[in-house]
Design a protein that fits this description.
Elements (H helix, E strand, L loop, with lengths): L2 H22 L3 E5 L5 E6 L4 E6 L7 H34 L12
Antiparallel strand pairs: 1-2, 2-3
Helix pairs in contact: 1-2
Amino acid sequence: MDLMGMMGKLKETQQKMEETKKRLDSVLVDEQSTDGLLKITITANRTIKSITIDDELLEDKEQLEDYMVLVMNKAIEKATKVNEAELDAVAKMDMPMIPGMENMFK
């Protein structure tokens, strides 16, 4: 592949990555506490969309804070996995193989 062809392919891949990032704004990831008292919805780009707190948790500030930290971290972790998997798939599918860079996307 010639240099101009590779540059064109890189630009095309970059555009597909941007399109994928925009699409991930609409991919929702739900997470909740094991007892269902706290629920969080977050996008695959890690923007919080909603938080639902059961009235029972409003009676114990410390418990609510603990729940928030746990559930938010689990939601962020799950969203990050979705985000990375989607972007990796685009990169692996469309990136030209440049000599010496074969191992970058493994």
